[in-house]
Amino acid sequence: MADSSSSSSAGIARNGEKAAPSSIPSPNRAAEAMARVYGPIAKHLVDVDARLHLELQSQYEALVPVLRHGTQLGGKRLRPALLLLSALATSRELAKSADPTADESDAIGEDHIVMATVVEMVHTATLVHDDVLDKADTRRHVPTINARWNDDTSILLGDYLFAQSFYLAATLSSTLACRWVGRAAQRVCEGELRQILGRDWLDIDEETYLEIIRGKTAELTSVSCRLGAQLSDGDESLVNALGVYGNDLGIAFQIADDFLDLWGDGDQVGKTLGTDLAQGKITLPLIRLLRHENTSIASQAVDALRAAPQERMRLIAPLLRKSDAGEYTRDVADRYRRSAIAAIDSLAPSPALESLIRIADFSVDRRF
Questions:
Q1: In terms of Cα–Cα distance, which of 162, 136, 144 is closest to 274?
Q2: How many CA atoms does the CB half-sphere of 163 hold within 13 Å?
């Protein structure tokens, strides 16, 4: 078993046991599927990328490579996509069009592009800070900022992205979007702080774990969806429905991420795996293992989690293979996936709504 702090593909499934179900698409097929899901907003995501590059410029030549490298780390552009798809789904609901295949891409305006850029910058800021905390070497198959430069550069880039995102959000005529993003960023940091301060907290329960990931991950996906609806003049019920969808989607996505950190293949996932375990972050699979009905296994799990960071994966892997932790984790993620879809079930049919449903499916059934 590889050292969990390396960038190797150090997942439990590498030993051929407890692998993810074969029905899960490979990264290439999944990426192609996601491209189809993004179809209704493809041209608008191009606009978001263009705006992102426009915002991340500097008169100081030495800063440009760092800023450009940072834009490569966001990967799937999930949060901008959620904002834009929520905007289109809201426009369809308000129009009550009889033709579910009609093109409503004109419903996307400049404010949508601006705020989609903002949520992506906030997300990227959290990633570059996370990579320092996790001592990660790779993300999206490219070196992290801290690996290519150093921790100081990564921390300052994250600060730069936060500052620029709030400045850009403040350019809208209404302060509502800026306030929403500010509150979301605060809750993301709060969730991360709770997790950091709770390192090696072996008594953490599932409810507390869910509260933490609701802050660190689901808050930003939720606000992305709510912003899309709000900017498209959605009423309170629409904004709330899409907010619930984004919240439950974010929880499902983070639980699946925690699954992949232990069972994933680093070559497919494209980032350093095993970092949660090495850093003492007690995620849902470990919470389940620590409560194993076989007290001997639970006791061995405690000993494994108290071992030196580089030894934890080697010690914990056989215990996880004896437990239902992986299956249980995927079941909980799927429960939140279904809850996310149920939250938007009453919206008018549209390509955007179908894409939101498929994103929820992808959040759980993925390998990267």
A1: 136
A2: 7
Reduced to 3 states (helix: H, G, I; strand: E, B; else coil), residue 271 is coil
Q: How far is CA 309 from CA 135, 147, 250, 306, 351, in A?
A: 12, 20, 28, 8, 46
Looking at the whole model, is its pTM more than 0.85? yes
The predicted-structure confidence for 179-190, as pLDDT tens digits, reads as follows 999 999 999 999
- Which among 304, 320, 209, 248 has a CA at the least distance from the CA of 82? 248
Distance CA 313, CA 311 (A): 6
Which of these CATH numbers, 3.40.630.30, 1.20.1510.10, 1.10.600.10, 2.60.40.10, describes 34-87+104-253+345-364? 1.10.600.10
**pLDDT band (50, 70, 90) for residue 19:** very low
d(CA 316, CA 311): 9
Cβ count near 50 (within 10 Å): 12
CA distance 187 to 211: 11
Place of tokens 């232990």: 262
Domain ranges of the chain: 34-87+104-253+345-364
Q: Give the Cα separation of 225 and 204 in Å (integer).
A: 30
Which of the 8 DSSP states describes residue 26? P
CA separation for the pair 271, 7 (Å, rounded): 7
DSSP notation for 202-232: TT--HHHHHHHHIIIIIHHHHHHHHHHHHHT
Q: CA-to-CA distance for 227 and 134, rounded, in angstroms?
A: 30
**Helices 110-134 and 151-169, interaxial angle, to 10°?**
160
Phi and psi of 217, rounded to 5°?
Answer: -125, -50
